[in-house]
Amino acid sequence: MSFKENAIEIHGVSKCFQVYENPARRLKQFIFPRIDRAFGKEARVYHDDFWALRDISFVLPKGQTMGIVGRNGSGKSTLLQIIAGTLSPSSGTVNVNGRVAALLELGAGFNSDFTGRENVYLNASLLGLTREETENKLDDILSFADIGRFIDSPVRSYSSGMLVRLAFAVQAQIDPEILIVDEALAVGDAKFQAKCFARLKKLKQNGTSILFVSHATEQIVTHCDSAVLLDSGIAQAVGKPKDIVNQYLDILFGKKNGGNDERQKVDEQIEEAAKGERDRLTREINNKSEESEFNALLNGDYHERANYNPTEYRWGDKAAEIIDFYLEQNDIAYPTVLDPAKECILALKVRFNHTVFRPIFGFAVKTKEGVTIYNTNSEWQSVPVLDEGVADSEIIVSLKMHNQLSEGDYFISVGIASSNTAGEIIPHDRRYDSIHITAGPVKRFTGLVDLNARINFEK
């Protein structure tokens, strides 16, 4: 794809900041290396290098929306500042094809002593608009911002919500070729956010390319064509929003280096605390498993079941594994299509490879685009807790639900985890999008789920 077809091209971009312990070392760095070089000596260094970005590469095609996700401190804002031209890279190249409007931080491009109206003209001029062009769009900008009489008050008196309203109104109403938004929409209320996303959708339809940073994963999968995962300044992955969000959740909720060390530490704690109870618990768990009505049905392999999704995303430390599942509706096992408003049963067989304290079972349903419809776990449901899953034992977990879904394809995610003594979640086996279900036609509603609304007429 040629540069003319891309709005943004990033090739090998890195950014290094010099970090000084104190102002004196900064002064020494300014003076002594010059003296050293003058006498032909190796220059002394009084700073540490902090690499905010390392070798980042990706392209954003024209007319598409790309999301950027990552933990705080991963380099997202630094990358956007480089693309917007307010920061220079230490190495690599950035090619931007089009006029850029960037909403990087609250108050950027505003003079706190100016009124909101005056700042509209100031901000628009920074974006390359003439005064006449700004006046032609002023009514639309003020209508979108919707801050009333405060438009003629100094912006230093504005709340954060009012600031973002005005800033986004200017950026979005000038019809930019490239729009960069860095988490600013998180400040606005729900009504304003809905208006912003409607505007983003219209801009995209008109050919605007959008670079969008958000911690809200649902926004990424709903509004973006592609996504980038940043972690510790490195682009860990570039791809489909749904896949990138799954990997981001891995990093956010427990998938980290040193997982085996954590597992060993927990095992040692369990070994010490559970010596006297192991035999009793093993008998108890085995008896419960034998009594389960699903025991005879769960004697196969997870990946061989009819509704299994081979492109599932799976990870965990394998202290416990979900090894088989059973799905039933209307006495039909592994149904091709789920009937509306009928009860479904999902049962899972879990094997404990290590002893696990107070295991937590999780369940979620998502659309094929990755939007979560429903998410719960045994802890939230106040289910009677299994104190221990003993090593080399198996249990069966089952749940019942009514199919209230609209017609379409959905994916079920399941998982088992526990928490350590510090309260941190330890994922053992997370199987994202591992079971594919198809909901049949419905007549009573449109949308995603049936809320069982009842309409009455009264005189």
Summarize the structure.
This protein has 459 residues and is an alpha+beta fold. The protein has 2 domains: 3-252, P-loop containing nucleotide triphosphate hydrolases (Rossmann fold); 259-439, abc- transporter (atp binding component) like domain (Coagulation Factor XIII, Chain A, domain 1), CATH 2.70.50. It has helices spanning 23-38, 76-84, 116-126, 131-145, 160-173, 190-205, 217-223, 241-252, 259-273, 278-291; strands at residues 6-19, 48-61, 65-69, 91-96, 100-103, 178-182, 209-213, 226-231, 234-239, 313-315, 320-329, 332-333, 343-352, 356-357, 360-367, 372-377, 388-389, 393-402, 408-419, 425-439.
SSE string, helices as H and strands as E: EHEEHEEHHHEHEHEEHHHEEEEEEEEEEE
Main sheet specs: 6 strands, mixed
The CATH C-level class name of the largest domain: Alpha Beta
Distance between the termini: 65 Å
Task: Give descriptors for this structure.
459 residues, alpha+beta, Rossmann fold, Coagulation Factor XIII, Chain A, domain 1, 2 domains, six-stranded mixed beta sheet, 20 strands, globular
Task: Provide a descriptive summary of the structure in words.
- One of its GO terms (molecular function) is ATP hydrolysis activity.
- Belongs to the ABC transporter superfamily. Drug exporter-2 (TC 3.A.1.117) family.
- This is Sugar ABC transporter ATP-binding protein.
- Keywords: ATP-binding, Nucleotide-binding, Transport.
- It comes from Pantoea cypripedii (Pectobacterium cypripedii).
- This protein has 459 residues and is α+β, with helices and mostly antiparallel strands.
- The protein folds into two domains: 250 residues, P-loop containing nucleotide triphosphate hydrolases (Rossmann fold, 3-Layer(aba) Sandwich); 181 residues, abc- transporter (atp binding component) like domain (Coagulation Factor XIII, Chain A, domain 1), CATH 2.70.50.60.
- The chain has ten helices and 20 strands.
- The strands form five sheets. Strands 5-6-7-3-8-9 form a six-stranded mixed sheet, with helices on both faces. Strands 10-20-19-15-16 form a five-stranded antiparallel sheet, covered by helices on one side. A four-stranded antiparallel sheet has the order 12-11-13-18.
- Strand 8 and strand 9 form a beta hairpin.
- Helix 3 packs across helix 4 and helix 3 crosses helix 5.
- The model has no long low-confidence stretch (mean pLDDT 86).
